[in-house]
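Hey, weird one. I pasted the FCD domain-containing protein sequence into the form twice and got a warning about non-standard characters only the second time. First submission, copied straight from the form history:
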Amino acid sequence: MNDAALAETRGTPEPKTLVEAAYHRLRRDIIEGIRPPGEKLRVEHLKDDYEVGAGTLREALLMLATDGLVIGQGQRGFRVAPISISDFEDITRTRVLLECDALRQSIALGDDVWEASVVAAFHRLTRAEQKLADHTAPSLEEWEARNRGFHEALIAACPSRWIRHFQNILYQQSERYRRIALFRQTIARDIHAEHQAIFEATIERDADTACAILAEHILRTLEAIKRMPPDFFERRANER
């Protein structure tokens, strides 16, 4: 999927500058593991791969450092942030706390417009999941965008912009791990059924049930990651 199509799917503006375009391409490559954890990101090499100038690339890398996907090393440049089970467990448990609280507030305060947005987001996600199941497209990247849209719609009525902000950071941090769990299915799960259960409890305004199912849904990915081979993350770190 090109940058324009992905931006449309996510409901975000198409990149308008070279910096934004380089940022999105680099971010996608990190999330998908094309740039593995620990890889040195040398500007003099990457500027040719991404066909942008050194200054543009440095700005994109600084944006990725703000996201926590890249680590700045002073005069030594940048490196892809490492991954580990302990890191993902911390991300996951903090995300459960924030996202469940945000969902509870959204259910209590959300109006008809919020409810309609949840219905629409679930419908778009369902279409993507049906196509994935039938192997008729969309790409995994499009599914990820619609999955993110659904989770964002669930908590959109939460009045705390800080909760939403930090939930967004944690969601982004979990993407690399979620890709690993999806590609290496270590546990049996029906992700669409999980989403449908969250959706139905939310629309019924049953906050206790919705939050319990949401927490279990998020923790299932952690369970899948914990079943990876013990040396998986060490091998990933040493790939480059």
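That's the output from the first submission. The warning seems to come from a hidden character in my clipboard, not from the data itself. The beta strands are 40-41, 70-72, 78-80.
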